[in-house]
Every structure is written in structure tokens, then in C-alpha cells.
Amino acid sequence: MADWTSDSNDSLLLSLVRSQNDKEALAEEETYEEFNPSFTYPIYGEDEKIYGYRDLVIDLRFASGSLEQYLSVQYSEKLPSTSTVDDVEDILSRFIPPGYHKDEEAFLKRVEADATFFKPTGQLIYSYTRPAPNSSSKGKRKRTGNTQPLEPESEDAIEFQVYHATWDTPGFREYHRKMQILILLYIEGGSYINDDEDNWEFVVLYEKRKRRDSAHTTTYHFVGYSSLYPFYYYPERIRLRLSQFVITTPYQRHGHGSELYKAIYQYIIKSPHIAELTVEDPAEAFEDLRDKNDLLMLLAHEQFMEEAFGPQEVRGAGGIGRARKTVRGEGGDQEAPKGQLVPPANKPWIEKWRKDLKIAGRQFQRLVEMLILLHLDPSDKASMKAYRLQVKERLYRFNFEILAQMEEDERHEKLEETFQSVKADYHRILAFST
């Protein structure tokens, strides 16, 4: 059977298809078609193998904006129909809405029609710009070091927009059914949500691109999305849990995930009815993205940093620096006043800021520990000891049920081992965040 076995991850090709006029606006290195998913086991089984074909290609295309779908299965040879031969199209069709295109010409006509007709639904909550690949301003920005964002109206700018939607948003339920297969293809352990549950909220990221015509016609192209679920938070607010988070392959490793996360966080900060943001079972890659963006937000928050480490906080590029031990006053150099995050940190102060910034408890404690570590003087043994005890206290409380079953010596050894591992990971996160 090995000669008739195909890897379903390699066989499935995904495409975000643009109209011909939209393709003409792309730079040579831009490609949005024929990329593979990360996972297919929710569809084709745990071993991600398909039996009965040679040279199998599963061609699943989406109109880049409307996500209208086309599915075609091609192969050079197929075994006679038996119980061992997988019905590739029938299996996949159970995971996408009915009515998908099977005729390529009809699908491409639909892409052309949808290109200018499709517009995002919901409320625009966030936007940012990027220079178009090979644009003149991109080269100029590199030469001059200019980091100011391009104006959306600039001919060299690509604008990205984030829209907030719910099931009540006209047409969104049907749109969600087209995009939800990406959850299975990109999130390990991902599953479809129940669209009969009314409370779900969504944020969807689009690329808004100008054509090279006289009218500079704008079209929208799907980039990724996140789903959010609200829980009651005493006495009269909600806690919003980030459940799913997807950026499609062509847009990965370009900072769009960070921008989508920023959009979610800013939406929460601006919403008085939301108490805090939590994350459901995050993958390691998302944890890193979250840590990096939360850290950068705190480092750029002048009031927080001044209270945390004192008015002597050194601010260089990116608002980052080590706190000075002395400040110059009228009587000469004096010992700098301590901030609230000099270990042992001020717990009521931490909790006050945690609530103001609407960050979940464990996440904020980790961020505080990273910031303290960033500013610690390794030669200050008293501060290093206080920091170690502060982190171990949190680790002990978080892992109490396991640690409580250990003998005292074993418990101390395990806590120290975990502390060293956590500290090493903090250094790793700080290295790429600062």
C-alpha cells in the first residue's frame, strides 16, 4: 500500500485567489496561492495519510475576500474502488459549506465578480499600514531610518483593517462557516465552535489593497481572525476569553499576528464592560507573541514604568533601560528612590495595575517577573534572593497540588529546578522583545 499512500498535509494545497486586476498590483515575490496547511488530522485521520491514489492533489481555493470556495481532486492513478480507498472529496466536503464550486471557470468568474463587490462586515476597530513590497517609500524608509507609519492614502501604502463582528452582524454567520476550516488546518487540537451559542465575538483582519487603475480601486483580502467568548465577571462586567487565533500562511512572520493581538487588546481596554482578557490553552508560539506584545506595551507605558522602577528609569530606544542606583540632586549624587517593582514587589500596587490594564492574573505576574529580571543587578545578592523567593512563591501556589505530595527536600529541589527553567525562558523572551 505504500505506493498508494499520500501525505494529506502535502497533498492539500490552499490558495487565496485574487482577481486578475488585483494580481497585477502584487510585487514579484508576493504569492498567495498553493500553500500547505499545518494539520489535516481532524479531516483525514490521526496518521494524516490518504490511501488509494498516486500523485494526489487536493486543490482547495478561496476567493481572497469573500472566501467563496472551489474544490478539485486530481491524481494520476487510483485503485479500484474498495473499502481501503478514501473518498477524498466526500471527506473534505463535510467540513466546508455546501454549494462550493467544482467548475474552475465558474469559480474564477465568481472571484472577479466578488473582488470589488466584497466589503468586510462589522465595526472597524483598528488599522495599520505597511509599505507595499518594492515600493519607493519602503526603500526610502530603510535609507533614512524613518519609522513613521505611512498614511493610508499614500500610493505606496497597504492598509490592514480589523473588524469586530458577532452573529448579529449581517452575513457574518455564513462568512464564518467558510473561514472556520482554517481552525482545523492551523490550530493543533482546534475544533469548530457551536454557532448556536449567541455570545461569540470575532475580530477579522483584512488587507485593503489599491489597484493600479486610474481610480485606485480598493479591494479587501482575508488575512486571519480570532474568536472570543465572554464570561460573567462579578459584579456587572465580563471576562473575555481568546479562544482561537489564526493567521494564514502567506501572511505569517510579517508581524500581522502581533497587530491582530494589539487590536484585540485595544478593543478590550476601550470597553468599560470588559474586565480582563484571558487566553484559552495557548500554543507556545502564541504565548511568545502574547508575552512580546504585553511586554512592549508595559515598557512603553511611562507612568507604569516610572512607578515600577522610580523616576530614574532610563529611557533609550524603545523605552528600555536599566534603573540607575543614583540620581543627581542639588546636594550631589543621591541614592535613587526605589520603585514598586524592586523585589520584593508591592503586591497591592501590582494588583491595582493589573486591573487597570485588564491583564489576567498569572500573565501579569509573569510580566512583572520579566520586568524585574530585566532591571536586576546580578551582583546585588539581596535583590536576587528576594526575586527568587517572589517567583518561587508564585510557582508554589500555581503547582500546589503536585508539590504538596512531595517530601520537603524533593519539593525544594523541584522548585529550584523550575525557577531556573522559568528564568532562562524569561531571558529568551526578553532577548527578542527588547
From TrEMBL:
It catalyses: L-lysyl-[protein] + acetyl-CoA = N(6)-acetyl-L-lysyl-[protein] + CoA + H(+). The active site is at E280 (proton donor/acceptor). Its EC number is 2.3.1.48. Keywords: Acyltransferase, Cytoplasm, Nucleus, Transferase. It is an enzyme of class 2 (transferase). GO terms for molecular function: histone acetyltransferase activity; histone binding. SUPFAM superfamilies: Acyl-CoA N-acyltransferases (Nat). Residues 128-153 are annotated as: Disordered. Residues 4-188 form the Histone acetyl transferase HAT1 N-terminal domain. GO terms for cellular component: chromosome, telomeric region; cytoplasm; nucleus. Acetyl-CoA binds at F245, V246, I247, Q252, R253, H254, G255, H256, G257, S258. GO terms for biological process: subtelomeric heterochromatin formation. It holds the Pfam family Hat1_N. Its main location: cytoplasm. The record marks W200 as: Interaction with histone H4 N-terminus. The keyword Transcription does not apply. Residues 46-48, 229-231 are annotated as: Interaction with histone H4 N-terminus. It is found in: Cytoplasm; Nucleus. InterPro entries: Acyl_CoA_acyltransferase (IPR016181), Hat1_N (IPR019467), Hat1_N_sf (IPR037113), Hist_AcTrfase_B-typ_cat-su (IPR017380), Hist_AcTrfase_HAT1_C (IPR013523). Catalytic component of the histone acetylase B (HAT-B) complex. Has intrinsic substrate specificity that modifies lysine in recognition sequence GXGKXG. Involved in DNA double-strand break repair. PANTHER family: HISTONE ACETYLTRANSFERASE TYPE B CATALYTIC SUBUNIT. Belongs to the HAT1 family. Component of the HAT-B complex composed of at least HAT1 and HAT2. The HAT-B complex binds to histone H4 tail. This is Histone acetyltransferase type B catalytic subunit.
